[in-house]
Write a structure and sequence with these properties.
With 480 residues, this protein is α/β, with parallel strands linked by helices. It folds into three domains: 4-145 and 270-334, FAD/NAD(P)-binding domain (3-Layer(bba) Sandwich); 149-267, FAD/NAD(P)-binding domain; 347-476, Enolase-like, domain 1. The chain has twelve helices and 22 strands. The strands form five sheets. Strands 1, 2, 3, 4, 5, 6 and 17 form a seven-stranded mixed β-sheet that branches. The protein has a five-stranded parallel β-sheet with strand order 8-15-9-10-11. Strands 18-19-22-21-20 form a five-stranded antiparallel β-sheet, with helices on both faces. The longest helix is centred in the N-terminal third of the chain and has 24 residues, at 81-104. The chain is globular.
């Protein structure tokens, strides 16, 4: 086979790979986008979009089931599992189609459908033996689900985010391993759609929440809807023709055995780099087999290899993958002129109900870098006006700032409208605003965001400024 010679080769056509291709193309004479699997980003095919479609259906069912709290009585509620999944799959395929259109717009000469591995730092080889000589290479291979040892060998009744959205209908029961982002989003959605759900975790973690008080609050809230044990003791799990059997220590202290239709493995994802032959590159690899890289340039060591997106295992979120792809592609395209790229303020949202949001520095980072010189502001949404109006009055928001300067550092939230409040706070953090400056911004009434103002006022007070916390502030409007 005739060898291929290019300036830049990009392995993977997901969000990071597509971003890398576009920016590299602006600087390099020849760019080759290589894909060894199906086109369509993780987000569109098996991630954020199909999961939000399932969550949307669950929210409608939940609202209808609890409409009587508003004096509205919905009679004869029925969830058509086949129709729910048909909509999820139809809309998912539509989103994947948009990605496919973007791929199809790339000149055929710039695309190669093949699995490749490194022969050396500048040479890739396909499974058929074709060589690709590239002056620079971007690794954007994404990630794959991780199975806990307990579920090794499971087949027909094992679900991950890679196949759960292909179910023909909703199951009647589901056991979830992993109360992280994926497990909680899908587990709660399934529960609200009428599926019997039990969820098990290890170590006590819930949705990545760092603050113990917020985590405890979330644990209690989720347990009001379905069984969740974030520090579970599971003795065994086995698969049969009928489904899955789990033997576990119940929170009441008794050992129990239960049957479920399926098990959902939501125990994380790992960089998909195992088959790349990275040992042939001479790069320094970390304990997970990922090349050590500079997070601002995405360059691996002092090589001409760059890494972006979930393959880097840094922040596995779509907007981060897009940013990383742009930085890696730009630097690969104009190599050796390598420049630091813009890394935005960290922002993460979990689309449970209530939602979870984290912004800026987390509590561990603040404790490490600002020990004994930061303050915490707090608000509960249980008595917040607009939240009570909508009967969404559950949750806590904590905001952090540096003592003395008043610089806003970060926040963590479990509560209503966290996706929107998270954005406001991320913008404030990226603009390096002080708490005083944030309080000078407009707040309408009545909105959930008024809870943010209450938290900021409490934070100002905790920093020992001249401001006082005003109880039942009437100039803010009732219940603000």
């Amino acid at each position: 086979m005739t060898p291929i010679h290019v300036d830049v080769a990009i392995i993977g056509s997901g969000t990071a790979g597509m971003g890398a291709y576009r920016t590299a193309r602006a600087h390099a004479g020849s760019v080759l986008l290589i894909e060894g699997g199906a086109y369509g980003t993780t987000c569109a095919r098996v991630g954020c979009m199909p999961s939000k479609l399932l969550i949307a259906a669950a929210e409608v069912a939940h609202q209808a089931r609890h409409a009587d709290r508003f004096g509205v009585h919905a009679q004869g509620l029925a969830v058509d599992g086949a129709a729910v999944m048909a909509r999820v799959q139809g809309e998912r395929d539509r989103f994947v189609g948009f990605v496919q259109e973007s791929v199809d717009s790339i000149p055929p000469a710039d695309r190669l459908a093949a699995k490749v591995s490194f022969q050396d730092a500048n040479t890739l080889v396909t499974e058929q033996g074709q060589l690709i000589h590239a002056r620079r290479i971007v690794i954007a291979t994404g990630s794959i689900p991780v199975l806990p040892p307990l579920l090794k060998g499971f087949r027909a009744h094992l679900l991950t985010n890679e196949n759960i959205f292909d179910l023909a209908t909703l199951p009647t029961s589901l056991v979830v391993f992993g109360p992280g982002v994926l497990g909680l989003e899908l587990g709660q959605a399934m529960s609200r759609l009428g599926v019997k759900v039990k969820m098990f975790g290890v170590g006590g973690g819930i949705a990545g929440i760092r603050d113990p008080a917020i985590r405890d609050y979330a644990n209690q809230a989720f347990n009001e809807e379905f069984y969740l044990d974030a520090s579970a003791e599971v003795k065994s799990a086995s698969e049969s023709a009928a489904g899955v059997e789990v033997n576990y220590l119940h929170r009441n202290g008794t050992w129990q055995t239960e049957q479920f239709d399926y098990v959902l493995a939501a125990t994380g994802r790992a960089p998909d780099v195992a088959g790349l032959g990275l040992e042939n590159t001479g790069l320094q690899l970390n304990e997970r087999g990922v090349p050590v890289f500079d997070r601002f340039t995405l360059r691996c060591g002092d090589s001409s290899i760059f890494i972006a997106g979930d393959a880097s295992n840094e922040i596995p979120l779509l907007h981060e993958a897009a940013d990383q792809g742009r930085i890696a592609g730009e630097n690969a395209g104009r190599y050796p002129d390598v420049r630091p790229g813009l890394r935005r303020t960290p922002l993460a949202v979990v689309f449970t109900d209530p939602q979870v949001a984290s912004v800026g520095l987390n509590l561990d980072q603040i404790g490490q870098h600002f020990k004994d010189r930061f303050a915490v502001g707090l608000v509960s949404f249980e008595d917040q006006g607009r939240s009570r109006v909508m009967l969404r009055n559950k949750g806590i928001l904590k905001v952090y700032a540096e003592q003395g300067s008043g610089l806003f550092l970060g926040a963590e939230m479990f509560g209503p409208a966290a996706e929107h409040i998270g954005h406001l706070l991320a913008w404030a953090a990226q603009k390096r605003m002080t708490v005083a400056e944030m309080l000078g911004m407009p707040f309408y009434h009545p909105v959930i965001e008024e809870g943010l103002r209450t938290a900021l006022r409490d934070l100002n007070h905790q920093m020992h400024t001249d401001s006082e916390v005003v109880e039942r502030c009437m100039d803010c409007g009732p219940g603000a």
